[in-house]
Description:
Layout: E1 5-16, E2 19-31, E3 36-40, H1 47-55, E4 62-67, E5 70-71, E6 79-82, H2 94-99, H3 107-120, H4 136-148, E7 154-158, H5 166-183, E8 186-190, H6 194-200, E9 203-207, E10 214-219, H7 231-243
Parallel strand pairs: 3-8, 3-9, 6-7, 7-8
Antiparallel strand pairs: 1-2, 1-4, 4-5, 9-10
Amino acid sequence: MPGEILVRGVWKSYTDRRGSLPVLEGVDLEVGAGEIVALIGPSGCGKSTLLNIVAGFEEADRGEIRVDGERVTRPNRKSILMPQHPSIFPWVTVRRNLTMVQNGISQEKRDQRTKHYLDLVGLSAFADAFPWQLSGGMRQRVELARALVVRPEILYMDEPFAALDALTRIQIRGEFLRILFQERHTTLLVTHDVEEALYLADRIVIMSDRPARIRCIVPVPLPHPRSQFRMEFAVLKDDILHELGVDPDEDVTLDRADVRGIESPFGGR
């Protein structure tokens, strides 16, 4: 299955009138085809910069990115980026938002794909509505459908659910995971939400403060569907927060002796 990502020795800094600002420092990462990998770390550490470099929208100072063995120097048709901010066009209908991004295929094929992905995200009844007539959660479904309708091998996602309220975010995450299981896109996700990373990802990459390196990579061995109320889920969340320098309140710290079948990826505390 195509969609394998290889990151080798990536360095990046920005320069302004105050001098050089190092952002990334020697980042190495491999993402397997069909894998979901989440990037988390302190705010401003360079997660989005790394995502943009991997997606081909920015150039590294040193190092290289390869997708399926081919060096990445610019965005390509194998992948698509879902940014933090809304990107759908408010002046055209939901249906038109999907059809206008499909190039090089017949109108009949466009209509078929559009219908398929509107069905997939549950928005067929709103195909002729304008985005400004939809709720925030529905607009995010349109964003997702528009990203998928071009049939990318890889999804790059930069906090795509951050602007949603908590309940809508949970619902959208569930829909997104259901779609990924059907379509098996390789996914690289930037998020600040540890629970979101645990709910979605096969592995979680924890980055350091800027200039960012990869501190550790945490496999998530929990089967889907995952519940945040399972003890194993809570243990992993507790460990990741510790690694990020966040100490849960003592009265909610988990007793690992009560947990069966999972060990901390960081060893004893």
